[in-house]
From TrEMBL, chain A:
<feature type="domain" description="ABC transmembrane type-1">
    <location>
        <begin position="140"/>
        <end position="344"/>
    </location>
</feature>
<keyword id="KW-0592">Phosphate transport</keyword>
<dbReference type="InterPro" id="IPR000515">
    <property type="entry name" value="MetI-like"/>
</dbReference>
<dbReference type="InterPro" id="IPR005672">
    <property type="entry name" value="Phosphate_PstA"/>
</dbReference>
<protein>
    <recommendedName>
        <fullName>Phosphate transport system permease protein PstA</fullName>
    </recommendedName>
</protein>
<feature type="transmembrane region" description="Helical">
    <location>
        <begin position="326"/>
        <end position="344"/>
    </location>
</feature>
<feature type="transmembrane region" description="Helical">
    <location>
        <begin position="84"/>
        <end position="105"/>
    </location>
</feature>
Automatic annotation (TrEMBL), chain B:
<dbReference type="InterPro" id="IPR051124">
    <property type="entry name" value="Phosphate_Transport_Permease"/>
</dbReference>
<keyword id="KW-1003">Cell membrane</keyword>
<feature type="transmembrane region" description="Helical">
    <location>
        <begin position="182"/>
        <end position="201"/>
    </location>
</feature>
<comment type="function">
    <text>Part of the binding-protein-dependent transport system for phosphate; probably responsible for the translocation of the substrate across the membrane.</text>
</comment>
<dbReference type="InterPro" id="IPR000515">
    <property type="entry name" value="MetI-like"/>
</dbReference>
<keyword id="KW-1133">Transmembrane helix</keyword>
<keyword id="KW-0472">Membrane</keyword>
Automatic annotation (TrEMBL), chain C:
<dbReference type="InterPro" id="IPR005670">
    <property type="entry name" value="PstB-like"/>
</dbReference>
<dbReference type="InterPro" id="IPR017871">
    <property type="entry name" value="ABC_transporter-like_CS"/>
</dbReference>
<dbReference type="InterPro" id="IPR003439">
    <property type="entry name" value="ABC_transporter-like_ATP-bd"/>
</dbReference>
<dbReference type="InterPro" id="IPR027417">
    <property type="entry name" value="P-loop_NTPase"/>
</dbReference>
<keyword id="KW-0067">ATP-binding</keyword>
<dbReference type="GO" id="GO:0016020">
    <property type="term" value="C:membrane"/>
</dbReference>
<dbReference type="GO" id="GO:0016887">
    <property type="term" value="F:ATP hydrolysis activity"/>
</dbReference>
Length: 357, 331, 258
């Protein structure tokens, strides 16, 4: 290989310390890449491999092996290992980008075909599922109501629990709460759905409703908000609390007037991220809200639609018109979640406790 | 736990003296506030207890009438008379798809986390972290839709290729039908949990003390050797617990599996071919047709899933706790 | 094995900020050279340019020459990784690898360089620990974690780790600033022994320490905050502390500022 001959030569006898190493010239990776691609194409043609992906794989493999071999020959095995790992890291990153980029691309590309003002402002009431038309207004409405109710239930409980753990929590109860909050974080959403199903619908026989879905979503939301709020409260310096106590302010007022306002930015961020998460939850909504074609503004009575559930049901219809609607709804859902995430992170940055010196 | 003496002992005497009447009301305020916050903590415990209790109640009712063996029966005919159902297929499918997901996702996640923290060009690391954060927030139903309508048709060629060279293993043989299989589910789950595992691993890697990395550098270590001697040992337990979190999510994932998998009551070694099932997928798919009894049966299978995820998450927590002790001794 | 260091016209930058400017000096072999000066004068930056650790920080770069027995450390084709094997370094805070045992810590540098036979490795580890005056304290617990030692012992472990790869030069960046007086004394004694074998450069905040351990002392200063640090003078330690040629040095060593 030419790269070997072109390597920066070390003048003999000028390096008593042994600190000079032959380095591959900067164009080596490009040369190895071209070599690998040419070889792969030739080999592919010779073996009659019609598949471009296969040729690409062979080229990639040749590049990895080639880089290691050239580097080992010129720079030594240690440097070669370093280069090998660097190539593998880049490779892993690039390979992982493909599906994730495709996910976003496909959703945007296919979603925009039917996404317009009509789609956003109409329900599926009276629309034939095998034909085009209709929209997701009813689903959007349902999701907003369900998520809002879940937030109203979960946030006070979660905030107070976090306050308890950080400001009061000592002893067995606090340990148990900490442990079970962690356990709760890991509950699959469908299990939360089954729990509300067994209690609310099977045992109490209160029927499907948006509110039943909200209960399950609240269960999923509580541990997330507790965790993030806890982290934020822990960041409040103790000096601040002590300063407040020293002024004779009682503990509860210190918490309400000093501790919580100091960390309000971080807490808001945590709540918004949790809202984003439960907005996309489908499984509990499937079990508890059941879905509907028409607008139902009352979350406490009767089945409702919901955005993620709408995506699922449109997909399950199994025809192109429905799939178009599913992609469009998925795009709306992603956009909503992303915007919420970006806003939340923006607030986190804007309200971050100043750590200047 | 009950005594909160700070406000009485730390208060300067003159303040206490001048506002003695105020102290009475603040005591009430403190009591109410403590009661509220402790009550919320207790509410969390009650919810957890209620979940276990109500799932168990319905599960016991369902299991009492089951004609099949709950653990070994393949089919799920909970609505039949007499009902006959078991979780063998579901357990197999859940474990297999999650294991495939982990085998793919963990190496990639570690590599990408290292890439972001140590290899990415300057100025790229920060934005990448942001993007990974956002990807972790994409709802699973969107992954499901993409998996069913994009990934599945695009995997056929790959599976034909796998079959050509590795078909003799049986596991990777392929009959050419739409690949709505456990293996596809595994790939999709891997893509889904990749951002989560990457994120947690990245955070741990980024915390590697600079002084340890400099110690390795000063001994004449290359970049990879610095990572091998300091970053990886430091981050190992963090990566393990991150993987457990990802595993927990893969085990309980519902919608992405329900959209991609074409279920059947069979346990077969041909993972590329359609068939099988998972706990969560079965619940979502069978729910619509389930009667009263069928729902209880599904709740029973949900209880098993609940217990499995509890064990996985508990293990992750133990590892994290051990790590804390370790770093405590270190400081 | 000890080598002379010749620095000429050396400046170091962090991005656009120039931390040190135009430093030229000679560090004699088999001796201890101390760097003193007020905070921010660039002495730590300077010592890190001597084994090319400075450039590890993103955006950091160096201009000028550092010659080790006539070979330029910043010359073309020089591998910074190889430089660091020739010029060892001990840091401000003891930093043994937390996941490794005492033995593994000392052997870490050797293992990076390739396969060494176990028996040979045992010998080098023992020799290095003896060289760092730590052998007697740890010989019965070589397989225990290095992080379990006291601060002073950890620092001597780091010295053992640095000398195990047989460098030509040993750089010490405030090696005692995190230690108690007794541990400091142990390290200072050790420096006195190590200079028989190595060229030693030590940065210190403590003027008494510079007076005690060093043969030559270099004084660094900066004209104002935000300005680059400069070498004011370098001379026999005795002269610097009794009769320096520059007024600023006298002011500093007599405690009038800094």
């Amino acid at each position: 290989m030419t790269a070997v001959e072109d390597a920066v030569a070390v003048p003999a006898g000028k390096d008593p310390l042994g600190i000079q190493h032959a380095r591959l010239p900067r164009w080596t990776p490009a040369a190895v890449a071209i070599g690998a691609i040419v070889l792969a194409v030739v080999a592919g043609a010779a073996a009659d491999l019609g598949n471009k992906v296969q040729v690409g794989l062979i080229a990639g493999l040749l590049y990895v092996v080639g880089t290691f071999a050239v580097s080992a020959a010129v720079e030594g095995v240690r440097q070669a290992k370093d280069r090998l790992v660097t190539v593998l890291m880049w490779g892993a990153f690039l390979i992982a980008v493909i599906p994730l980029a495709s996910l976003i691309w496909e959703t945007v590309d296919r979603g925009k075909t039917v996404l317009d003002a009509d789609f956003l402002t109409h329900s599926m009431n009276g629309v034939l599922t095998i034909g085009p038309g209709g929209g997701l207004y009813h689903a959007l409405l349902g999701t907003i109501e369900q998520v809002a109710i879940a937030t109203v239930i979960a946030v006070p409980i979660a905030l107070l629990t976090a306050v308890y753990l950080v400001e009061y929590g000592r002893g067995r109860l606090a340990t148990a709460v900490t442990f079970f909050v962690d356990v709760m974080t890991g509950i699959p959403s469908i299990v939360a759905g089954l729990f509300v199903l067994s209690l609310w619908i099977v045992i109490l026989d209160l029927g499907y409703s948006g509110f039943a879905g909200s209960l399950a979503l609240a269960i999923l939301m509580i541990p997330v908000v507790v965790r993030s709020t806890e982290e934020m409260l822990k960041l409040v310096p103790n000096e601040l609390r002590e300063a407040s106590y020293a002024l004779g302010v009682p503990k509860w007022k210190t918490i309400v007037k000093v501790v919580l306002p100091t960390s309000v930015g971080g807490i808001t961020t945590g709540v918004m991220l949790a809202v984003a998460r439960i907005t996309g939850e489908t499984a509990p909504v499937l079990l508890l809200v059941f879905g509907s074609q028409a607008i139902n503004t009352n979350p406490f009575d009767g089945t409702q639609a919901s955005l993620p559930l709408y995506v699922y049901q449109q997909w399950a219809n199994g025809n192109q018109a429905s799939w178009d609607r599913a992609w469009a709804a998925a795009l709306v859902l992603i956009a909503f979640v992303m915007i919420l995430n970006l806003l939340a992170r923006g607030i986190a940055r804007w309200k971050a406790p100043k750590t200047g010196r | 736990m009950t005594s909160t003496p700070v406000e009485t002992t730390d208060r300067p005497p003159q303040a206490a003296g001048s506002r003695i009447s105020d102290q009475g009301t603040s005591r009430v305020g403190d009591k109410v506030f403590l009661g509220l916050s402790r009550g919320s903590g207790i509410a969390v415990l009650v919810i957890m207890g209620a979940i276990a209790a109500f799932l168990t109640i319905r599960a016991v009712i369902a299991l009492a009438d089951n004609e099949g063996n709950f653990l070994t029966t393949f089919e799920w005919n909970a609505n039949a008379i007499p009902p006959k159902f078991g979780i063998a297929v579901l357990a197999f499918g859940t474990v297999v798809s999650s294991v495939i997901a982990m085998l793919i996702a963990v190496p990639f996640a570690v590599a990408i986390a290292l890439f972001v923290t140590h290899y990415a060009p300057r100025g790229l690391g920060g934005p990448l972290t942001y993007v990974i954060d956002l990807l972790a927030a994409v709802p699973s139903i969107v992954y499901g839709l993409w998996g069913a309508l994009f990934l599945v048709p695009h995997l056929t060629d790959f599976y034909v290729w796998l079959d050509e060279y590795f078909g003799w293993t049986k596991i990777l043989s392929y009959d050419g039908t739409a690949p709505r299989s456990l293996f596809t589910v595994g790939i999709l789950l891997a893509i889904m949990i990749l951002p989560i595992i990457t994120n947690v691993s990245r955070e741990v890697f980024a915390q590697t003390p600079q002084m340890h990395k400099e110690a390795a550098l000063a001994l004449g270590a290359t970049r990879w050797e610095v990572i091998r001697t300091t970053v990886l040992p430091f981050g190992r337990s963090g990566v393990i617990s991150a993987s457990m979190l990802g595993l927990g999510r893969a085990l309980g994932e519902t919608m992405a599996v329900a959209t991609v998998l074409s279920p059947s009551a069979l346990i077969r070694p041909q993972l590329l071919e359609a068939g099988g099932g998972t706990f969560a997928q079965n619940i979502a798919s069978a729910f619509k047709e389930a009667g009263q009894y069928g729902r209880d049966a599904l709740i029973a299978s949900g209880l098993v899933l609940f217990v499995i995820t509890l064990i996985v998450n508990g293990a992750a927590r133990l590892i994290i706790a051990r790590r804390k002790e370790y770093s405590g001794a270190d400081a | 094995m000890a080598k002379r260091i010749d620095v000429s016209g050396l400046s170091a930058y962090y991005g656009k900020f120039k931390a040190i400017e135009d430093i030229s000096m000679t560090v004699e072999p088999r001796s201890v050279t101390a760097f003193i000066g007020p905070s921010g004068c660039g002495k730590s930056t300077f010592i890190r340019t001597l084994n090319r650790m400075h450039e590890v920080t993103t955006g950091a770069r160096v201009e000028g020459k550092v010659r080790l027995d006539d070979e330029d450390l910043y010359g073309q084709g020089v591998d910074p990784v190889a430089v660091r094997r020739v010029v060892g370094m001990v840091f401000q805070r003891p930093n043994p690898f937390p996941t490794m045992s005492i033995y593994e810590n000392v052997a870490a540098g050797l293992k990076l360089n390739g396969k060494v036979r176990k028996s040979e490795l045992d010998g080098i580890v023992e020799k290095s620990l003896k060289g760092a005056n730590l052998w007697n304290e740890v010989k019965d617990r070589l397989n225990r974690p290095g992080a379990g030692l006291s601060g002073g012992q950890q620092q001597r472990l780091c010295i053992a780790r640095a000398i195990a790869v047989e460098p030509q030069v040993l750089l010490m960046d405030e090696p005692c600033s995190a230690l108690d007086p007794i541990s400091t004394l142990a390290i200072e004694d050790l420096i006195g022994e190590l200079k028989e074998r190595f060229t030693i450069v030590i940065v210190t905040h403590n003027m008494q320490q510079a007076a005690r351990v060093s043969d030559r002392t270099a004084f660094f200063n900066l004209s104002a905050v935000g300005q680059p640090g400069r070498l004011i003078e370098i001379d026999e330690t005795e002269r610097i502390f009794s009769n320096p040629s520059v007024k600023a040095t006298e002011d500093y060593v007599s405690g009038r500022f800094g």
